[in-house]
Design goal:
The chain is of the alpha/beta class. 37% of the residues lie in helices and 16% in strands. β3 (72-76), α3 (86-96) and β4 (108-114) form a beta-alpha-beta unit.
């Protein structure tokens, strides 16, 4: 029997009706059978302070622990001012510090984005990828999941209605499984 891949998913948005949280919900609904997705809400992670990195709050400790326990990550990011939102960058900063024991090191990761604009969060994804280079993470390159015009592709109940994007999310998860297995050390 094939073992399950544990994926930790989170959205770089605090908004309750976030389009990117809708992408995460869609991923849960169409995931392959061998994928278990746990969702983490970034709400409550304090602003990063290097003076406190050795005394993190319980929320930060929980986040880092869940990252470490996961086989891979799934991040859905909005695009704010041509880049990633502060809450997402802040969460990454907390989870990567201190350098010793960084749970992001070598972690496979898939990215998705939804935006009200026509580029679907592409610029935010590219900035996020730059951060992954420094953290020695392993992002999936294709397929790219970038949902533009999100208000017309996510209904009033927060359901993704764009069939092409649903197919791409499924392909992204399937690719994440393959990538994770390729990167996983043999035991």
């Amino acid at each position: 029997m094939e073992s399950s891949i544990k994926v930790l998913a989170f959205a770089g948005s605090l908004r309750e009706n976030s389009y990117n949280k809708a992408l995460v919900r869609a991923a849960i609904g169409i995931k392959p059978d061998n994928v278990a997705i746990e969702v983490f809400d970034l709400e409550g992670i304090p602003l990063y302070n290097a003076d406190l990195e050795n005394q993190p709050t319980q929320k930060v400790v929980e986040f880092k622990s869940k990252i470490k326990a996961a086989d891979a990550l799934l991040i859905a990011t909005p695009e704010y001012n041509y880049s990633i939102p502060g809450i997402l960058k802040n969460a990454i900063d907390w989870s990567s510090r201190p350098n010793v024991g960084n749970p992001l090191e070598g972690k496979p990761v898939a990215i998705m984005s939804a935006s009200i604009g026509r580029f679907g969060g592409a610029r935010a994804q590219y900035h996020l990828r730059q951060t992954f280079v420094f953290l020695n993470m392993h992002p999936i390159n294709q397929p790219e999941v970038m949902l533009s015009d999100a208000p017309h592709n996510i209904d009033e109940n927060g359901n993704l209605t764009n069939e092409t994007t649903l197919k791409l999310i499924r392909q992204l998860l399937e690719t994440l499984v393959i990538w994770t297995k390729q990167l996983k050390p043999q035991t």
